[in-house]
Amino acid sequence: MRILLHRADGVxxxxxxxxxxxxxxxxxxxxxxxxxxxxxxxxxLWSPTAAxxxxxxxxxxxxxxxxxxxxILKFGDVLPPVPIIRLGDAGMAIQxxxxxxxxxxxxxxxxxxxxxxARRGQWQPLPQHQKEDFAVGVMGMGVLxxxxxxxxxxxxxxxRGWSRSPREMQGVSCFSGLENLDxxxxxxxxxxxxLPLTPATANLLDRARLSQLPEGAYLINVARGAHxxxxxxxxxxxxxxxxxxxxxxxxxxxxxxxxxxxxxxxITLTPHIAALTLPAESADQIAGKINALERGETVxxxxxxxxxx
Length: 309
Ligand code: NAP
Ligand code: GLV
Prior knowledge:
By secondary structure, this protein is α/β, with parallel strands linked by helices. The chain has 10 helices and 12 strands.
């Protein structure tokens, strides 16, 4: 069995050793642009280039080394009609919990303001925010969103979730569909975007939608930059209508040098690190799914191309 591996970052060693341990019968072929590629049974990749597509035509399935699928589905019908399988957690959910809980608590406990006060040598206790005024709303109640909701509920925050189809989760006020989005937003003090990027969710958070949030709301975006209309968010923050934002993802990554987000003190930004792919866990999960496919079984985390995630 041959596995075609592509890593844009060039870091292939942990993947090769992960597959050697979990799938010893497999030979890992590292894809190199311009070099001939032996026909492979499976492909393991993140964001393919157009030059890779001919080498995907004969594989039995494509495994993604991440949760989001927008980087591959953009190729549409040029992709072979084989199963595309994303990672299901593989160590990402706990990282999302850490990132979002940290961001919510930093704002709720006013640690961002205390950091600034400390730099000014100022000793000034501030009034505490109250949890009952601090509903956290998570857009996307999937593999990652549900873990984040559970962790925020454990801190005692009122929690709300929004999804495409109706869902139920204990302790969470659940909303679904575009027709209920404004109601979800109106009761949300901290909005966390954890949606997949699809034609239905691109540009969803524009001026009109963000203006449904209560005065002084806060945005955390750990999904994709294209969910947010960046100039609208900036204008709402500068006017004070939105208190600030923590952003891990951007329309253009790396965020270009002359971008107003860099200079906006009410925006905290990180370089797309909210939940990193862990090679050992991920290779192990993919190997288990390859074994299941070889036995003729179905596997979890199959991408639905029509739905877009
Ligand atoms: P998932 O399991 O596919 O869950 C997606 C959720 O979004 C589901 O609840 C789904 O609704 C909902 N949804 C999809 N389209 C919708 C729509 N049009 N309206 C309302 N809700 C909609 O995804 P996941 O594994 O939780 O990952 C979410 C995203 O996180 C990924 O797609 C990726 O972009 C991002 N991500 C970012 C990082 C990072 O480091 N920043 C790391 C990993 C992932 P249903 O429940 O009805 O299906
Ligand atoms: C990272 O952004 C992922 O989707 O896994």
